[in-house]
Amino acid sequence: MDKEKKMLLPYDACEIDAIEGWLDEQARDGWRLESVDGMHFYFTRPDDATLTRYRIDILPKKVPDLAERRATFDDLGWEYIATLFDNLDIYAAARPDAVEINTDEELLRQTVKSYYRRRYIKGNTLLLLVLLGIVLLRYLLFGEFTPLFTLLVSSDGHLFWLVPLWALVFIIGLVLDSRIYKGVSNRMLLHREFHTPQRATVRKVVRYTVWIMLLAATIINTTQNSSSRERHHLPFPHEDYPFPTLADISSEEGANREYVLREQRYSLSDFGWLSTTISQEEAEAAGDIEWVYILEYHDTKWRWLAKGYANELLRQQDDAETVTVEGYETAHYWQDSGEEHLLLWNGEKRVVEVAYSGEASLRDSLPVFALS
Length: 372
What we know:
Layout: E1 4-8, H1 16-28, E2 32-37, E3 40-44, E4 54-58, H2 66-75, E5 78-84, E6 88-93, H3 105-142, H4 148-153, H5 162-186, H6 197-227, E7 231-236, H7 246-249, E8 259-264, E9 275-286, E10 288-300, H8 303-315, E11 321-322, E12 330-336, E13 339-345, E14 350-356
Helix pairs in contact: 5-6
């Protein structure tokens, strides 16, 4: 027969009565609590095990003399065992006539509710700081804050694999927190009847499910991130190329060139979520690049995403000129650092970006981008 075991705490730290009931159940089965590490409880089964009770003392924010406090409980017949989450001292009855630690139901309820609120505020503040830290780290690494729609459509879209799952986990957490708070507010805590083996099992299943979901999201995110920048180069004859080519703008620069369709399927778009980006890039270099022609074609999953992305790009250009391109609801043209730019949105799920720095005029070539 095993003499040692480790168990995961099945209840929230605020459910004092349930934890005490759970520990008492372990004692009835012959197990003695030896130590606590995080949410892991370590038990031994001594040969001379005696039935004992476990009680929890909720420490206030400031304890003038913790050693004296524990000595007082020792005098009352309680042996200090361990501390859970830095705020909950766990005691075992050292003798059968040990005086109960908590005897006032209303005082215990108010203490538990106050502790719950402290933990809730602390936990959410920590979460907010982590999120702000991630945003700040990105700014420090890249020198700018990438707008939301640009993140969704760009190769960083893989980061948003986690968003629906984070939201689901957060909602589950809110529901559980609400039920926990309501429970400790309404039930008789001193009765210690909330714990049952079935309830403990359900709690464990919920907790493991949430952890598995987060682990799965992390694995998927990592896998998709590694392939999110994968590019497929597909050669196309000029006459079959599905987008305007350099030859359509400048026959001289585009003469006798081999055309390649570079399809970038970012992680989320592989599952049909966000967008498929198709890029055509051409450049002529003689030492430094003399001219470039870049066309990026985005087919998004939703109209709001295409519209939001187009508007986001447009807000970054103060001198964008409204032009007309057949087949597109909005079209804008501007120049920046020696390059001509064209931004097109068809009013539905398609956005086209064009950048050109050759000798011909992109402004004069607008008809070649018209949709038939």
